[in-house]
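Chapter review: from sequence to fold.
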Amino acid sequence: MFKNAKLIKAAAFIMSFLGTKEIPIADGKVNFIDDQQTKLKEELTEKTFNSLIEAFNKDLAENKETESIRASVEDLLKETEISQEALDQILADAQAKGGNDTLAIVKAIKTELSTYKEDLANHKLMIKKLVDSAEDDTPEALLKNKMKEGFKHSLTHAFGSNKDYDAVDGRGWNQALIKGVSASNTDYSDQVVINKLNGDADLYFRENPTEIKSLHRDNFMLPDFWPKRLNVSDKVANGTILTAEITQGRKFSFLPKNVQEIEAEEGKIYPVQIDAEWNGAQLQEIEASWLNMMNKEGSQPEKMSFVRFLVGELMKKARVEDRISSLNGIFVQTPKDSTKAGKFINRQNGLFFQLWKARDINKKYRAYSMGSITSQNVYDYFHSDDEANLGFLKRLDQEVLAMTNLVVYMHYKVWVWYKAKYKEINNTNMDYKGLPDHFEDHPNIRVETFVDQENPNFVFATFDDNIEILENIPAEKSAYRFQTLLRMIYLLGDYKLGIRLIHIGREVREGDPNEFKVQSVWSNDAPIFLEEKYIPAFDTTTGKLSVAYKNVQVDETWKTDITEFTDVKPGQLIKIRGNVNMTVSKKVKDGAKIDLLSNADFDLQTGGTLTLYVKSDLTVMEIGRTAAPAGLPSTDIEFDGDVINANQGTKFIYTGAADATLDDITGGTEDKVIRIYGNDIANVDFTIATITGKVNVGGTPIVLSDDTHFLELVSVGGVWYKTISVTA
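The token string follows.
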């Protein structure tokens, strides 16, 4: 387009700045539209802009001869395999070398064209070599030498995006990226840098709302059909009219039987706080990771900027915690003077806690008494017609079972079991169509599974619009702010989130007729949470412990004797676990409201567990206690035979009452290491001798005659070889 080398560079800068592929020309002169002129004048000043336009137009006027040469060359090259873009580059390079000398320009074109053809031939040769080589014929290998050329940056912006957060000015990370280095000298203690990060975060999240919404949704991973209510600042409630049966046979007397009530299920939204801190060196390490990823062949930098990378990783983790706490969370108010960060699982009341409280505490719906679900009984668990052991689906009212918006929720493992059992039962049928996506004979019922559900035995059903996500302002989840103090960098974020069941049922009262069973949730009676689940309790210095959940562990800062339990229901079992990290010994005191066995106080500092039963007058009585913390589950594998299955573990302890000799080791993987121990029974030995092709301990058998004796073996090529033995 232009023959002057300086004007060519100026044109390249303007095209990059405006985000265009060419300089607009009309009637032989440069012709920018009004919006482009305004931007250029703001960037270059009006005087510089006018001078540049004058120089462009002069160059175009003097370039008619060069244009005629270009046309001639294009005619000559019609049969040559060369793209218009490559040709434009060859002409530009030739004009830069030839200046105003037409002959020099022609020679330069020939030289450039010759070089291009040679490169093209070499490129075709490389492709042919890759095609002929099956092992190396991969897209990565083919693109290896050209990938970096595709990552174009302008003089002022990373990726040539013209976005402020990709600008080079004041952003060491973008400067380093353009230079292709893996580290920069960014000073993160500089307030100017922090202000840049804050501004970039605001700009990125405003200009990319679709990508941000996608990031929130993809990592939340809760059913996408659940409705979402926005602008909830604290609580929300829906009124539901409950109506019992109304019709009856004709008679003379007037006998009204309508029973109607309004039940309001309250939903609460919870404030969530994000606090993070780094020192400058830590942020530089994160920046180096980003630079390494961006400069690596095969990455997609047009979808990333440093601020998106920095905050995006935090967002991903926050969304996972949103999902888990929305399901399994149990709210615990962290003391205002706490010096220890709270656990995310205690930031809100989740769906399963609401089900637990409605079923086990408030009795808002009746659960079906059923046993455990196994891989063998899973089909009958839902479909059995046996009156003595009806399946879950068979227990639902027919009108509910026929609903088109009914959803059954379960642990993902149970649905895997169901499909496997379905295949086992139906794979010999001529009309077998493969694994189902719904219950057999019930295509109207949707099945949803959870990966975070704690107890696989729990199953519940409700309508697809009966579970609601509560948010205040969705954009708050992206409103992170950076601050700096001395050499420390801080990030702060706040948003609100909650979940609720819109309608559960009517609390059961004595005297209710059996037919009055208005509920919108149905479940079995399996424990909803695992028994090991405890929530923390913080001292209010009142001597009263509020029991929000049945299992409570006092915090290590607890400093008051407990004389009363509040927020309990008659018939409830509660467990109070102590804490060995308490700085002072405090007790659960026997008294008028706490009836302990033998009137013996319970010392919380032992870390033991006190089990209590709530009586009808809301006082509690002791069922039992332990005097020490529960031990960790053992991973040791005990055996009393002569065969070891190496797939079961790594430490095997012989527990037989008589002498025995190892006969075989099954399972295991290459390089796996196991240890076999004897036992402490007098005169009982376990012997390991060489077994051809299976076990090699050398010429002398290893005799384990005590629980401190062991033999260590490693699997190599399918044979277990001795590495260490201790027999004395």
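Two observations follow directly from the output. Confidence is low (pLDDT under 50) at residues 135-150. The longest strand covers residues 488-501.
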